[in-house]
């Protein structure tokens, strides 16, 4: 067990787990730029004062996962002892974020290097700089609702008091809606390798629901607004991807990587380069 100080950079859209209920994959970097994955994190079950934001520093005791072989994965020992310890903002043209994420942490430019690293189980989290971003696309999910079997199992555990120890949570908790669409980027890397990777970022899902409300439930308009942000806006900046592998496909898939977050950092202006 070790006490870690981690800058949170990634929160994925919630998924359902038979064992853990609704969970969020959280990841971030230490002060030396190395990565830590925190899983499982029942984020929405934390009280408001315990919830952390992206680019918050958090401190917690963690242990290396025994069930997840990926090298960066750790379990929080006690979520109630996780504390926030400051926030890294965007002042001075994102100076602090830029220094930690683009200088301290390693930035990859060739996807094959990451694929090989995952196959040898050397890496499962990374910052990646695409050379060209070709498109932002979406595809309708075959199932627009959560798997009813998983929900039934979760409800059973809730009734037994296993899943939520706090009575108030068991009485009031409701599942986040399942996204009816999956989002992906198409891009090329430094070697000219063309790829398409799914985007699992929580913020993409939240943006879709917000746009849907503003568009009076017009899904087509909402999707176009998501693309306007993730393609139109972000590609005008120095766009980087936070990449991660999924445990299920880490060893098995030809390309196990997905986009678990985006870093649309402003370009450095000439004054900062002097």
**Which overall shape is indicated by the principal axes computed on the Cα atoms?**
globular
Rounded Rg: 19 Å
How would you state the average pLDDT, rounded? 86
User: How does the major sheet shape up?
Assistant: 5 strands, mixed, barrel
Number of domains: 2
What's the helix-strand series? Answer: EEEEEEEHEHEEHHEEHHEEH
Strand content: 25-35%
- Tally the beta strands: 14
Number of H/I helices: 7
Please state the second-level CATH architecture of the largest domain: Beta Barrel
The secondary structure category is alpha+beta
Written account of the structure:
The protein is an alpha+beta fold and 274 residues long. The protein folds into two domains: 2-92, OB fold (Dihydrolipoamide Acetyltransferase, E2P); 106-141 and 179-273, OB fold (Dihydrolipoamide Acetyltransferase, E2P) (Beta Barrel), CATH 2.40.50. The protein is 27% helix and 34% strand. The chain has helices at 91-104, 111-119, 148-160, 167-172, 202-214, 219-233, 270-273; strands spanning 2-11, 15-17, 21-29, 35-41, 56-64, 73-76, 83-87, 107-108, 125-128, 132-140, 181-188, 194-199, 238-245, 257-265. The chain has a five-stranded mixed barrel. The protein has a four-stranded mixed sheet with strand order 8-9-13-14. Strands 10-11-12 form a three-stranded antiparallel sheet, with helices on one face. Strand 11 and strand 12 form a beta hairpin. Helix 5 crosses helix 6 (219-233). The longest helix has 15 residues, at 219-233. The protein is globular and about 50 Å long.
